[in-house]
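Posting this for the archive.
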Amino acid sequence: MNPSDAQRSAPLDSRVPGAGRPTLDDAELAKFAALAAEWWDPKGKFRPLHQIGPVRLSFIRERMVEHFALDARSLKPLTGLRVLDIGCGGGLIAEPLARLGARVTGIEPTDANIKAAIAHAEPQGLAIDYRAATAEELVAAGETFDAVVCLEVVEHVPDVGAFVKTCAGLVRPGGLMVLSTINRTLKSFALAIVGAEYVLRWLPVGTHQWDRFVTPDELKQHLAGAGMAMGRTEGMVYNPLADRWSLSGDTDVNYLAAATLDR
C-alpha cells in the first residue's frame, strides 16, 4: 500500500477487528503476543526497540528530572516517582526506569507479554508491578501516576484521540506524560515501512500501517483535547554508518513528546 492508497482507504472502524473498543485492536494485540518470546533478543524481531532504547530513556529521564526538579547527578534520580508504562511489552523501558529508582507499573492487554516481562525482571530482583490490564481498567479503578510513559503505541490504536484521553486520565495533577510514535510523512513511509520492513527486514512485514502514523500537530491536538499541553518534542534519527540512533530536531520519522496537564 502506498500513501495515496492509505488516504483513500475506508473509514478506520470498518477495517479494525474489535473496533467497538476504540483503544484496542485485536489484530494488533495478537500480532505482538505471538512475538512475546522474542522481546529480550537484541538480534530478534524487536532489535529496533533495543537500539532506540538508550535514546528513549535519555529523553524520558531528562524530561522527568526537569519537570519534577530532581537531582540529575543521582544514580537513581527517579526515586519516589510512581510511573506507569502503558504497552510495556516485555519490559524494555520498564526495567531501566525501575533501575533509575522509579516505582514502575507496566501494563499490557495480553498475558503473553506480561509473562515475558515478569520472567525477565524477577531473576534480577526488579520489583515491577506488571499487570495484564488496559488503561481503561486503571482509570475505572481511580489510579493515577506521577508520570505516564506510552512508547510506540499510539500508531497501533484505532482511535488515537480516545486513547490519549484515556492515558491522560491516569496522570495526576502536576504530572507528566511522555509518548513516542512515528510521523505520517513520505519519508516515514520510505524508511519505517519500505526500508525497515521490506528492505532491511528489521521488522516483520505488516508491523506498521502508514495511515495510522500520527503527525506532531495531530498529537498536539489530541493532547489538547485530553486537557494536556504538549511541550518538548525531539526526533530520533538513525546513523547507518555508526549503526546508532540519536536525538535530533528532525521529527520526520520517529519522534518523542512530553506533555503536562493543562489544568
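The chain has one domain: 3-261. The radius of gyration is 17 Å.
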